[in-house]
Amino acid sequence: MTKLSFENIKLAVIGLGYVGLPLAVEFGKRLNVIGFDISSKRIEGLKGGIDTTLEVEPEELRAADKIVFSNSLDDLADCDVYIVTVPTPIDVHKRPDLSPLIAASESIGKVLNPGNIVIYESTVYPGATEEECVPVLERVSGLRFNHDFFVGYSPERINPGDKMHRLTTIKKVTSGSNVEVADFVDALYGSIIEAGTHKASSIKVAEAAKVIENTQRDLNIALINELALIFNRMEIDTEDVLKAAGTKWNFLPFRPGLVGGHCIGVDPYYLTHKAESIGYHPEVILAGRRLNDGMGAYVGSQLVKAMLQRRIHVQGARVLLMGLAFKENCPDLRNTRVIDVINELEDFGIKVDVYDPWVDSAEAEREYGINLVSVLHSNRYDGIVLAVAHTEFVEMGSEALRRLGRKNHVLYDLKYLFSPDQSDLRL
Predict the structure, then answer these.
(1) Does the global pTM surpass 0.85?
(2) Residue 263 annotated as catalytic
(3) What is the pLDDT of residues 192-237, one digit of tens each?
(4) What is the tens place of the pLDDT at every residue in 77-107?
(5) Residue from 79, 133, 263, 330 carrying the catalytic annotation
């Protein structure tokens, strides 16, 4: 391996989304960085100091004065270290879609030089870096793995919309394809991560650690969701039960709800895919996934039942969904499960309006065919669903939300934003 000094290396970050941009900005305060993205619109926005993901403030972009933003592969030709932060989604059959990762590896392979290091941050199943990405790098570049070039893996831990837990304050897991590379990767991240690093014993260990972080969280939420289904049938308030149980010191504070986004609702399928490929059929993980994937339809059906109990005519009724993003105070629409609620309500012949001040209306139309409403009108809705806990919705208060409904309507507080007496229905 060619010795690299932090003082003279040129680093490239491939993919400037929620994960890649904060990373490029942090390194760009210290090192020469090429921030690369295939979207010319994204690059032009960043050059103008605008981050549409809202993860990086304009002043932070200005402070990272060593970054050059580009969508030209030629600008990557003389880099020493490449960090890949492209998305790893699932397809319609809930199978891993590695096409963005393979495409990024092919692009890097075209400019890869002896002594270079490629570090992957995208969530994958254990073994994917060395089994899927490395062969692409070798094939395209003509170079030999662990002889001419090297790889590392350091899983992302970005939490979109979270202004407290930031890149530098979250401990980083690192790994490398040999001992020397592992040390280099660990030191590289250690230069920007204030919370410190954890050097895993192998790339596979680091990959496995990442994929089980969100699998564990998914299962915990699935348990609480199932409890909510049970308690609803027993006419017991789930939140009251969780508050009571939470007085025990080791009770975990999870809440029921929709499980979407690009991590928790996706990562478990990467692990189960790998498990099945080696002859093991996961039971608990997939059971949790099925339960969480069904919560949107359950929420929709619960609202319909509540409307019928109030003698509200369902066919042709109008319902307002407050929020479309997959989580609060974030414009990210990827894998939002609010869409499941919408689909369920529309199956009953209900007209659904969706309001979300955080979401780009053009993106909502492009991704889901949804035309967001921009203005809220009083006395219009037979049902109102608080689907996302945006701060704006909390500040509106239940009385203002009630005024949006007709005289006889149902307010469903899916996110426990208000007290039980301020809503008609809770999960």
Answers:
(1) yes
(2) yes
(3) 999 999 999 999 999 999 999 999 999 999 999 999 999 999 999 9
(4) 999 999 999 999 999 899 999 999 999 999 9
(5) 263
3-state secondary structure labels for all residues of the chain: CCCCCCCCCEEEEECCCCCHHHHHHHHCCCCEEEEECCCHHHHHHHHCCCCCCCCCCHHHHHHCCCEEEECCHHHHCCCCEEEECCCCCECCCCCECCHHHHHHHHHHHHHCCCCCEEEECCCCCCCHHHHHHHHHHHHHHCCCECCCEEEEECCCCCCCCCCCCCHHHCCEEECECCHHHHHHHHHHHHCCCCCCEEECCCHHHHHHHHHHHHHHHHHHHHHHHHHHHHHHHCCCCHHHHHHHHCCCCCCCCCCCCCCCCCCCCCHHHHHHHHHHHCCCCCCHHHHHHHHHHCHHHHHHHHHHHHHHHCCCCCCCCEEEEECCCCCCCCCCCCCCCHHHHHHHHHHCCCEEEEECCCCCHHHHHHHHCCCCCCCCCCCCEEEEEECCCCHHHHHHHHHHHHCCEEEEEEEEECCCCCCHHHCCEEC
Average pLDDT, integer, range 265-281? 95
